[in-house]
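Q: Got a minute? One more chain.
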Amino acid sequence: MMGSRDPDKISGKLVCVIDDDSWVRGAISAILAAGGFAVIEASDGAEGIEAVVARAPSLVITDIVMPNREGIGVIREIKQRFPKLPILAISASGLSGRLNYLDHARKLGADGCLEKPFTPEELLRQVCSLMEGSSILEHASAQDA
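A: Always. Here it is, folded:
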């Protein structure tokens, strides 16, 4: 599924999945676990920020529309605190009036975007691509600072 990507570079890497829908969160976590990733889950943005600070994941996947700290705020705070940490924004609510949530997320620092529904292959392709383009050591150094 991961094509020419080196599985040794991503195997066991920690991904934080933030989504208020437990079914979606569980499905994403199962796909990632089957792809060789370790996963931590958060049910809202506030819990997600706490998990990122406590566990220093290699990547964050966040929904946009959530209670208790929506995804745009999560992206903004993570990018302020950990600028090198890659973020994948996901949303079923691509459009709300004139506001395209995923375009807005990208402008605020999301490194990738996926509109729900997406396939397991699309998710893993995005995750692997974002991880290969980031420096996990830079994130760890930023957290220690």
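A: The domain at 12-144 is CATH 3.40.50.2300 (Rossmann fold).
Q: Perfect, thanks.
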